[in-house]
Amino acid sequence: MKITPRLFFILLFFTVGCQSQPTKLFETDKDFEKRAFEKIRFGEKFDLKRSVIVDTRSRFDHEMSRPPRSFHAYWKDWQLSGLSGENLKKQKQILQRQLALNGVDPLTQVVILGKALQGEGDEFAVAATLVSLGIKKITFVDEYSMQKSLVSLDIPPLANLPYWESDVTYQFDCQGSEPADLVVGNDSWGVKDLFNPDMSIKRKSFPKGIKVRIGDKTGRWAYGLALYLKEQGRQPCVL
Fold this sequence. Notes:
Layout: H1 5-18, H2 32-36, E1 40-42, E2 51-55, H3 59-64, E3 70-72, H4 85-101, E4 109-114, H5 122-132, E5 137-142, H6 146-149, H7 191-194, H8 219-231
Parallel strand pairs: 1-5, 2-3, 2-4, 4-5
Helix pairs in contact: 5-8
């Protein structure tokens, strides 16, 4: 059969059109999470006059021993995972408004109170969202060492702040990236000074399929975070 110029271009069009498109490769910024959390500190002293405590313990514990300048935060109510578009915007506005009503803006020193080794890692779940919402100064403290951390005696009550809004800068999500280990608590965070190695959770206790390099010292905070990511069906990120 003689191929005319017209037939040639028709065949060329279908040949090119039927070819599979090249796979797009997206570079995963493995240092992004580390930069996002670089201002988080463990067990530091804080001035309660200039701080707000976010209590991630149970509601019962919060009501029975309510710390000054604190409000309760149940980690499941403080999630942005799986949200996008208008749903993400709506949830972001709800949480940022709740922070403002409790005296928190992006420059407020936030102290996340939890049970540490006796808890389930709720502190990290809440901290991830606070970082996403633009909170820049976060300190962790457990209920057993909290009294040692307080440096103010004349403590003013919480006061509302004007509503503020900022874009979500980070979501605890690794979708689309290569499977990654969860690395929580390197020495620069001072974790080795906070956790008692004798109370550490052994590696075999971590969920199957999730490898956690924690030096056997970060205990249940790392464990709780790994469980949280697993429940959400997401790959653990590198912190």
